[in-house]
Design a protein that fits this description.
Layout lengths: L3 H19 L3 H6 L3 H10 L7 H7 L4 H18 L2 H9 L14 H43 L1
């Protein structure tokens, strides 16, 4: 039986894989003047806020476009900084880069993110240990086989 954290981990992996397949194309959103959607996606993914220069490189970003981007980014970042998402961000090994600075729940976010990161690091170390043990076993078996011949 899977624990709740294991269920969440598997669910997140599924969502991450399917989310990558349907993630909107940044340049397409800019060409279609969907700046708010672009901002929302950037915020939701915990990306840095794009500067005016970066937005101009994507397309004709007028003042209203920049404001729309900022509104979308704010709502997306609120989603990203939800403490329910923090564990999932940590368990993927994604470093926390202060995206949730000045958010009212930043401390809770960091605690939950750290729990996920601890689990991620444990799993990485466990895999390394298992690989080392498997290599050691293979070496011992090879020595034994050579001695038997």
């Amino acid at each position: 039986m899977l624990t709740n954290k294991e269920k969440i981990t598997w669910l997140f992996c599924f969502v991450l894989l399917t989310g990558c397949a349907i993630s909107p194309d940044v340049s397409k959103l800019a060409r279609q003047n969907q700046w708010e959607v672009l901002g929302h996606e950037d915020g939701r993914q915990g990306n840095s806020f794009r500067t005016e220069v970066e937005l101009q490189r994507l397309g004709k970003a007028e003042n209203t476009a920049i404001n729309d981007y900022a509104v979308g980014y704010s709502t997306g970042l609120a989603y990203f900084c939800d403490t329910e998402n923090a564990y999932l961000e940590g368990i993927t090994g994604r470093p926390y880069e202060g995206q949730c600075n000045n958010m009212p729940n930043e401390k809770e976010f960091i605690v939950s993110w750290q729990e996920g990161m601890d689990q991620y690091e444990f799993e990485v170390l466990d895999r390394l240990w298992q690989d080392t043990e498997n290599d050691r076993y293979d070496d011992l078996m090879e020595e034994y086989t050579q001695e038997m011949n």
